[in-house]
Amino acid sequence: QVQLVESGGGMVQPGESLRLSCAASGLTLNYYRIGWFRQAPGKEREGVSCISSSDGSTYYADSVKGRFTISRDNAKNTVYLQMNSLKPEDTAVYYCAGDPAPWCGAAWATSRFRSWGQGTQVTVSS
Questions:
Q1: Which residues is 35 bridged to in the sheet?
Q2: pLDDT tens digits for 54-92?
Q3: Residue 98, CA distances (Å) to 61, 79, 83 in order
Q4: Cβ count within 10 A of residue 119
Q5: Distance (Å) of CA 32 to CA 2, 8, 47, 113
Q6: Across 19-48, average pLDDT
Q7: How far apart, in whole angstroms, are the C-alpha atoms of residue 83 and residue 66?
Q8: Predicted pLDDT at 62
Q9: Which of 2, 62, 78, 81 lies 20 to 30 Å from 119 when distance is taken between CA atoms?
């Protein structure tokens, strides 16, 4: 009954911004670590960002540091990914994933997340 639904994807030009949303139901967001992952054609799934449930600490892939920001609104049970200065190499399907754990952990990008959303397409092209 846990559901994660992504929205906010679309097509933008390089340098522009998008904000992705992950609306959660069937879970209490403040007890879950939430990760954003992406997968581009012909490439393996990549961990983009994670936010811990315990203290709100955040983690980012090196490729997006300084450009992307993950945040959460526990009252709305929603996690956001603000993506600025988008590049063509950011083009991918972006997935929201949740797991009942207090911390993301250093190896969060390769760890198992229990629940996954359906994905939303982000295309960055001139």
A1: 50, 97
A2: 889 999 999 999 999 999 998 899 999 999 999 999 999
A3: 17, 10, 20
A4: 16
A5: 12, 22, 17, 10
A6: 93
A7: 10
A8: 97
A9: 62
